[in-house]
Amino acid sequence: MVAPALRFLVADPLDGVQVFVRRLLEGYGFDPQRIHCCAGSNEALQVGLAQAPDFLLTDWFGGASPTGLQLVEQLRARNRELRVGFLSFQVTPEIEAAAAGVGSRFLLKKPFDAAHLKREIQRGFEYLAATQPETMARVNRETQGRLDPRQRRIELSPLPAPLRVGESVRWDGKPYQVTAVVMRRGEQLAQLSGAASLVPSHKLQRSA
């Protein structure tokens, strides 16, 4: 029996973080419909309790309810195998100890650039390969080996290029032109000429 596709939950108040992580994961080959992005910790808790994610990347949410730490603890009650990474503007020895105490694979200080986040995610998958080979096998199936640690270095896929207004695409086999691009919960949506509703970018095929 084939295991279900892995689920990812990204909880961060910054739209840019949500957008970047979503594009990064889509670039690896993970199912876009299994990547959920939330701006607040309470919304993330509700989504997490309903979806039971396998991976959580969350802001520390130090002044929120729940905090990022509480979010992890409550979601762990739903999925004991939850893998976690934290993002925070403030990093202190106390925060580092608390993050390590819930098994966080990294605590990345904001602001950071794309290279820093890629590097931490790469290290996280390398650790996963060494400690949970069955889960890493699922990762390799879903990414077609892009994150296979048996390579000399894990291959980091380029980010999917954002859609542009005026770009030609195909949807359900028909040609369209992009007339507007919006972001919602870290997901890129396109308004197409002649289409009544916004269409997620992962459902579109770029014209050659």
What does this structure look like?
There is one protein chain. The chain is an alpha/beta fold and 208 residues long. 35% of the residues lie in helices and 23% in strands. The chain has two domains: 8-143, Response regulator (Rossmann fold, 3-Layer(aba) Sandwich), CATH 3.40.50.2300; 168-206, no CATH class. It has helices at residues 15-28, 41-51, 68-76, 93-101, 114-131, 133-143, and strands spanning 8-11, 35-38, 55-59, 83-88, 107-109, 168-171, 174-184, 187-192, 199-200, 205-206. Strand 6 and strand 7 form a beta hairpin.
Q: What's the Cα radius of gyration?
A: 18 Å
* Most strands sheet: 5 strands, parallel
Q: Which superfamily, in CATH terms, is the homologous superfamily of the largest domain?
A: Response regulator
Overall CATH class of the largest domain: Alpha Beta
Poorly predicted regions are: none
- Shape summary: globular
Distance between the termini: 37 Å
Strand order across the largest sheet = 2-1-3-4-5
Q: What structural class do helix, strand and pairing data support?
A: alpha/beta
Integer average pLDDT: 90
How many beta-strand elements?
10
Order of helices and strands: EHEHEHEHEHHEEEEE
Predict the CATH topology of the largest domain: Rossmann fold
How many domains make up the 3D coordinates? 2
As a percent range, the share of strand residues is: 15-25%
Secondary structure tally, helices: 6
